[in-house]
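#onboarding

Welcome to the new folks! Below is a worked example of what a typical request in this channel looks like: someone posts a single protein sequence, and someone else replies with the predicted structure as tokens. Don't worry about understanding the tokens yet, we'll cover that in week two.

Example request:
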Amino acid sequence: MHIVERAKNIMMSAGSAWVMWLLVALSIASVAIIFERLLALRSLRTDLSDLRRNLVDGLIEGGFTKARALLLGCRHPAALVALRGLARTESDTTAKGAEEAMTAESVAQKRILERRFSFLATLGANAPFIGLFGTVVGILQAFDALGHSSMAGSASAIAPQAVMSSIAEALVATAIGLGVAIPAVVAYNMFERTVKSALEDAEIFSREILSYLESRSDSAPTSVRDPASQPKHGAILRRAASLS
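Example response:
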């Protein structure tokens, strides 16, 4: 019981006010991150159908050079991933090499887009528990005050009123915790959907480029075979001439 009594004394002396201030600080940080991410991700809410059409037409009409010119200046992750695949000339680019380069750029863009998402996810999952902790401390203080008032012989009508008032104040911590968690969860889910859609657009652009490279390699003229792999007609003819 010694450790239980010691833990109770620590929580009683600390109180629940610090939990309220912690939740307020976390709420301010959450709002700041939400606004920062809204500004950072606002360019992702664009219709890329025209840009995709320009990419395909540019590849068909002018190859990598024209496609790069059409994508330059666009900061959407899909355009950046496509530009990574178009970085070299067509003769120096293979489908496998372009795919690896664009996959690497897609991973890098995902890391940039999901910056500070973990804070929102962690806050949304744990803010209610922080508020609940403040509520538990407040209820503990209320019942401890009730016990002391009963031992001191206070009026029985006064003690329950004080206890109910203390419990009501303690429940404010849980309400604040929920108020901090709900916007963080909503913003996190909204941002995740936006990033997922942007990465899917990047995948579409990369597939268009890989399709162009594959079709270009298939339509290229068959290379001349190595003379060493050809039948040795000259040797056969010389042998026939010597026999005759």
